[in-house]
Design brief:
This is Putative nitroreductase TM1586 domain-containing protein. Pfam families: TM1586_NiRdase. The structure is a single chain. The chain starts with 44 loop residues before the first strand and ends in an 8-residue tail after the last helix. By secondary structure, it is an alpha+beta fold. The protein is globular. The chain has a domain of 71 residues: 3-Layer(aba) Sandwich (NADH Oxidase), CATH 3.40.109.30. The longest helix is centred in the C-terminal third of the chain and has 16 residues. The chain is built from 2 helices and 3 strands. It has a 3-stranded mixed sheet with strand order 1-2-3.
């Protein structure tokens, strides 16, 4: 929950050299919530011809990842037999970690070589 909670009001103790950048809510809500739009794979990936199936599956899984403000400000690229990932905007480093994890889940961790 990036940007949707008060860091000052939280009861989390942060040590020297640490920063509270987001919070994760666990449990069940009183409602099912609402769906958010999901981008198409071609909107978040750049690749030439001959993309392996694992890369396409990784991108599809990354599109289901929860990102800050649900903006999906990330991009995957396949070149030289390696996967490259970038993210921009608010919470870019956190989002990048989240989408790379989801990418690996979809692609199969043993298939992915990061560039």
């Amino acid at each position: 929950m990036a940007l949707t909670f008060s860091k000052r009001k939280s009861k989390v103790e942060v040590g020297p050299g640490e920063a509270l950048v987001c919070a994760i809510a666990l449990g069940y809500g009183t409602t099912q919530g609402e769906s958010h739009p999901i981008k198409r794979p071609d909107e978040v990936s750049k690749c030439g011809t001959g993309v392996p199936e694992w890369f396409a599956k990784g991108v599809e899984c990354a599109l289901l990842a929860p990102t800050a403000l649900m903006k999906q400000n990330f991009m995957f690229e396949y070149r030289d037999r390696k996967a490259y990932a970038t993210s921009k905007g608010i919470c870019a480093p956190v989002n990048l970690g989240i989408v790379k994890y989801h990418f690996e889940v979809g692609a199969g961790k043993d298939n992915v070589v990061w560039g």
